[in-house]
Amino acid sequence: MSTIIIASIIAVFLFVIILTSYVKSPPDKAYIISGFRRRPKVLIGRAGIKLPFLERKDELIIKQISIDIKTGDYVPTSDFIGVNIDAVAKIRLMTDPDGIQRAMANFLNMNEQRIAEALVDSLQGNMREIVGTITLKELCNDRKSFGDQVQEKAQFDMSRLGVEIISCNIQHVEDKNDLINALGQDNMASIQKSASIAKANADRDVAIAQAQAQKEANDARVMAETEIAIKQNDLSIKRAELKTVEDTKKAEADAAYEIQQETQRKTIEITRAQADIAKQEQEITRKQKEASVKEQELNAEIRKQADAEKYRQQQMAEVELYKRQKDAEAKKYEFEQAAEAKRIQAEADKYAMEQEAAAIKARAEAEAAGIRAKGEAEAAAIQAKAEAEAAGIDKKAEAMKKYGEAAIVEMLCKMYPEVARAVAEPLSKIDKITMYGEGNTARLTEDVTRSFKQTIDGLSDSMGIDLNTVVSSFLGSRAAVGAKLPGDAKNSEGKESVRLPE
Predict the structure, then answer these.
(1) Theoretical Cys-Cys bridge with 357: which of 123, 276, 436, 437, CB 3.0 to 4.6 Å?
(2) Dist. CA 26–CA 42, nearest whole Å
(3) Distance CA 361, CA 367 (A)
(4) Sequence-separated (6 or more) residues with CB below 8 Å from residue 478
(5) Cα 454 to Cα 89: distance, rounded to the nearest angstrom
(6) Strand partners for 59
(7) 235-258 confidence digits (pLDDT tens)
(8) Which 3 state secondary structure label does DSSP give 82?
(9) What letter does residue 484 receive in the DSSP assignment?
(10) Do 345 and 421 touch, CB atoms closer than 8 A?
(11) Which residues contact 5 (CB under 8 A, 6 or more apart)?
(12) Of 184, 168, 94, nearest to 126 (Cα)?
């Protein structure tokens, strides 16, 4: 048990050590693990292990940092014009093996602001040196070249610190005497002059072009009008020629028209006469056809009415027949449904009666079994009572021997009604017994008789006397000497004999 506890403690201790030793650096920071190794371990964007109490973790910012560089005062250019420049440099600490070693030596655990403050002086000094080597016009015209020179100049110093200059951009330039604006105005005047000359030359060219265009347009218009006049003259001549031809053709056409008109008139008259004759013939034919059509219409109307009446009668007869058939089918269906319902009801009644008879039979058998059990119980009680009175019975037996079989029979005759009453007494407490089927009444009687017989047999066993044999022998002997023994007469020995009840 102690071994398990120690192992658990060691496992927990190792887990805590591993949990506290696990470190993972983000991409914009470098974790420096030092102390246990001769050369510090650098983690950039990956995980590593730092041994607790033996190693330490330092941070180095390697993301891009913006540094605002200003000359701070007017610095003279190569043409002795004081300028004030505002620039922005983008720097980043080196991550190569040599560069990060120099960066660790200078900027370990510094934030962005402290790194910018440490570098701004060196960058401003390099920018001042570059300003003194160029003119104001060069500075204004080529700012990118100036930024590249500052970056190239300062990179030498920054490399020794483990810093890389990504870019250097000029944001604003101003001079002490506002010469930049003057240069701008001079350039503006020159540009305006050039623009005015260009505008005047353009206006002149436009006027010349417009005049030339108007001249060409006028020449074209004159040529077009001359061409139009020639064409119109040719058109008039052509119209006159066409008019002469037209008049000739018209005269010929008029003559031909009159001839054709006369011919057409004759043809029309002949055609009209023929048309009148044909019309009269057509009128006679039409009237004949109308009469025939009228006759056919009358015949068709009468036949149509007769056919319609016949069709109506047929339809009515079919409707009546269909109605009777449907009524007969409906009545037949009702009778069948009623018969089926009666049959189902009869089967249900029969099944209910059978179920009720079975229930009554089961109830009767149960009651009979109860009666039989009760009779047997009472018989057992009587038997017990008889056994309890065995001593008295033995004494009476000696006396009974004196009386013989007649005394025994007399006793039995007195006892049988009591036994039968005891056996049948449970039946007297039943109000009504309804039995279905055959043999149930005989069965009930047989059960009662069997109970009575069992009781008598029990008495025979307890007394040691076969009562049935005694009674049988007594009845047989009595039948033999019945004439000599009257009911209350004494025998030859002076003893009284007992007559059995009828």
Answers:
(1) 436
(2) 12
(3) 10
(4) 485, 500
(5) 135
(6) 31
(7) 888 888 888 888 788 877 777 777
(8) strand
(9) T
(10) no
(11) none
(12) 168
Identify the CA nearest to 447 among candidates 497, 387, 372, 362. Answer: 372
Query: What confidence tens digit (pLDDT) does each residue in 346-383 have?
Result: 787 778 777 877 777 777 777 777 777 777 777 777 77
Distance CA 121, CA 104 (A): 20
- In the chain, the largest separation of any two C-alpha atoms, in whole Å, equals 205
Element (H, E) at 220: helix 179-388
Indicate whether this model's pTM tops 0.85. no
Please report, for residues 228, 343, 353, the alpha-carbon distance to residue 347 in angstroms, rounded to integers and kept in the order given.
126, 6, 10
Beta-bridged to residue 85, according to DSSP, are 173
Tokens 């055609």 correspond to: 271
Structure tokens at 71: 């000359």
Of 84, 76, 77, 106, the C-alpha closest to 93 is 106
C-beta of residue 41 within 8 angstroms of C-beta of residue 34: yes
Sign of CA dihedral 73, 77, 83, 87: negative
Q: Which tokens belong to 418?
A: 């009591």
Could you tell me the two tokens for 67?
Answer: 């540094």
How is 310-340 classified by DSSP, letter by letter?
A: HHHHHHHHHHHHHHHHHHHHHHHHHHHHHHH
Tokens encoding 359? 């229930």
